[in-house]
Amino acid sequence: MWKLAGVSKLSLGIRLYSSTKKGLFSASLTKSIVNNYRLQHHQSKNFTTKSKSFSLTTPSTADARSVFSPQELEEARINRENGLGILKKFPEKWVPYMELMRIEKPIGTLLLLSPCMWSITMAAYMTAAPLLHTAWMLSVFTVGAFVMRGAGCTINDMWDRNLDNKVARTIERPITSGRVSVKQAWVFLSAQMLVGLFVLLQLPLDCFILGASSLLLVGTYPFFKRVTYYPQVVLSACFNWGALLGFPAMGVWNWPVMIPLYLSGFFWCMHYDTIYAHQDKKFDVKVGIKSTALAWGTKSKTIFYALSTAQIGCYLTSGFLAGMGPFFYLGAAAGAYRLFQMTKKVNLDDPSNCWYWFRENINTGHVFFLGILFDYLWKIFFL
Predict the structure, then answer these.
(1) Which of 73, 124, 232, 304 could pair with 134 in a Cys bridge, judged by C-beta atoms 3.0 to 4.6 Å apart?
(2) What is the spatial distance between Cα 141 and Cα 113, in angstroms, rounded to a whole number?
(3) What is the pTM of this model?
(4) Tens place of pLDDT per residue across the chain (383 aa)
(5) Domain spans, the chain
(6) How many CB atoms lie within 10 A of CB 137?
(7) Where are the bilayer-spanning segments (predicted)?
């Protein structure tokens, strides 16, 4: 710790030296050095104080952020604010928590919801379920997808707070930027999980147990990107759990139909999330984040074609065993066309192009769903 006495001693020493070595130090130079000394003392105190208060939230954020230029940091802040959309209308204190749930980026919720809608509607077709009951289950799963996707994002950001600050695209996320502390994130996560529990309680008991069994995968997914180049396997396993849940939610336990539909969603997620991972590959290499984008590299497109083939094969198998009608196969054909077009056109070295094609999977999921839905509506109204 710098002391005022130290300043006085330094001043005295300089003056004595100046008197014995004439011409080497002028009075003005002595004054300048002492003032500079005091300035350094003042800055050191400020830095120490700020560091202590800052470390209460994100200990290594300041050091990590220093690798970015002021211009890059400002650009990241502007991009975040420009992407808030409707969140700008909410109270400022709410916004970081809404960002934590990625409310301004609903694509994840919609992708999580797609396999749920496939399975619910396919089960409804198999049992000729009343339209009102099917609509109720679709609404329950919509709320569940919204809440659980938000909880998954909170968990991910808590795990990755000291990795997100090393990637330009994620440096402004609420926890790593210090706008939400880890303690606050834990409280918020608890609230999200309580809402998720309430949603699960709307389902039959066997469906509740099956749904709760996915929480282990949800909670540990962020860990896998540190130890394996295939974290997408874990993400795909939990992200498509709804392809299983929709059947027992509608009173159907038919594993020969359920498993191929689940695998179809699994292969689909492996495909689109690897495209997503290609956005950050140059940063991921530097900070040690692993992904299939890095594992597959230039072979990615070849593997994508194989994944799409496997996805469509499993999807058709599930529909055939469920006894689906002609609209299902038309939807499958349209969805397959979109998947292969995506693989052909995506530029894996252009982050903005990767984001565009990743986002297009929302519409692809809807195409598959509409095929099942039209078959279901035709059956209950016209057959």
Answers:
(1) 124
(2) 7
(3) 0.79
(4) 444 344 444 443 444 344 444 443 344 434 443 344 344 444 433 433 333 333 333 444 445 555 677 887 888 888 888 888 889 899 999 999 999 999 999 999 999 999 999 999 999 999 999 999 999 999 999 999 999 999 999 999 998 888 888 887 888 899 998 999 999 999 999 999 999 999 988 898 888 889 888 888 887 887 888 889 999 999 999 999 999 999 999 999 999 999 999 999 999 999 999 999 999 898 888 878 899 999 999 999 999 999 999 999 999 999 999 999 999 999 999 999 999 999 999 999 999 999 999 999 999 999 999 999 999 999 999 98
(5) 96-382
(6) 25
(7) 107-128, 134-159, 180-201, 207-224, 233-253, 320-340
Sign of CA dihedral 113, 115, 118, 121: negative
Tokens describing residue 157: 């950001």
* Tokens 């080497």 belong to residue: 24
Tokens at 250, concatenated: 């509608």
Report the amino acid identity of residue 17: Y
Count of residues making up the chain: 383
For the CA atoms of 194, 199, 204, 205, the dihedral, rounded to the nearest 10 degrees, stands at -10
* Residues 188, 212: Cα–Cα separation, whole Å: 19
